[in-house]
Amino acid sequence: MHKDMKFNQTQDINGPILFVDDEENILEIAVEFFQHKGYSVITANNGVEALNVLSSEKVVCCFTDINMPEMDGLELAEEIRKIDNTIPVIIMTGYPSLENSIRTLKNGVVDFLIKPVNLNQMEVCVQRVLRERKLFIKNILLSKEVEGKERLEKLNKELVYKLEELQTLNKIMADLSAINNTTDIFRLIVEITIDLTKADESKFFVINESEHIPFEVSSSFSESYLKTLPQNPKEPFSPIDHRFQQTIIETIADEIPLLVSENKNVDSNDNDNLSLMIVPLKIQEKVFGVLTASMKKGLKRFTDKELYYLSFMTQRAAYAIENLALYEHINRGLMTTLKAFVKAIEARDPYTKEHSNRVTEIAIAIGKQVGCSDEEIDILKISGPLHDIGKIGIRDEILLKPGRLTEDEFEKIKEHPDIGADIIGQLGMWDEHQQIIRHHHERFDGTGYPSKLKREEIPRLARIVSVADSYDAMASDRAYRKKMDPLKILAIMADCSGTQFDPEYVDAFLALYHEGKIS
What we know:
By secondary structure, the chain is α/β, with parallel strands linked by helices.
């Protein structure tokens, strides 16, 4: 038994489900649905409340959001694992990332659902994890009762098999959750297929709706099989595809995964010996595509377990594709609204027109210069244009004042980072974007605003935007002054390195400027 496990033999495996989320409407919907289905439900608004519940209630399953005040979902999962690692934890998030996916595996999370979550999908998830928990607990109870080394070894093997299976499924979920476009999903599932099943070849086909004919969009080959091919393996429809194209079409029509093997000559090592899996991928109850895996040489055959893995993977891929489409639709509408806010600010102050776009371009250039990840660059692409959105809450007589601001007026101006971060928060943007907007006027020496953060306390991307914002402000005409001489600006930037700005990002900016990449 795991040394951290706290297990009560009288524990009820049909106890309540715990839902943890700081959004009351989500909790209300979940309670109404699952109580109607006959489940007992307990709710909490954050991780701290959830731990209080667990001190007095024996829950059988926990659904939790990631981003919550006081204690987030991943911290809660770790605490639950310490208290009772037989309680399955399912993470729900609207903004998946590779970092969070990896952390869920480390914290023992058994599933990872992307918001908005389908309630029927949640019930299926509950039924699955409770079945697995029941088996897990049963194995533990049996291991306490058995006598003799053989019985214990057998139970341990079963448990190891279940844990390995869970790790495999978790890896599939983590890999797919980290993808942010459909092309990469197609590429990833054929690569995972080769890795999981040791197939010679895997292909993914999208279905032509009008003709119901599959056309290949992605393929992958094992290294050993590639060495046997005399011709270019990327040519569409290799001989195996022609032989079984009708079988693929029939499988699509039946909408059921298929495993088929041919053994024309058991002594042969050529294409007469074939094992093939065909798994439809359905979106909104319609077959969108089909995943195939084939072994063309040798006597090895696919198993039902491998067919199950591919079926699970195509289901997760379908969820990912649906969520990407939904997120892209929502995000396009949200970004249109936010950009309209920015345009409204620029219309009020013609001196700052296109300022946000220039700041974004400079910040991205600095980010690439210092080795920011693709994910960080994407955050800058969204946060840069919005960094001054809070100025929409500042009165015109202050924002457009041509002379020096009074102390009270400057205090009002200093409110715009908090106003902007709060606007973004209300619209459901990620924490990283809020942090950039809230802290882009902090100073490296701790004398900035609104929070007087210093050095590494200031979010990294906010430090980058600060450099870009200050440069463009000095290099642009403003209501209270004309733009400054370029040499004077560069001197000021250098002088403020280590006081107002992070020296690393000033050095990167100056290098880009002298290379002519910033004008």
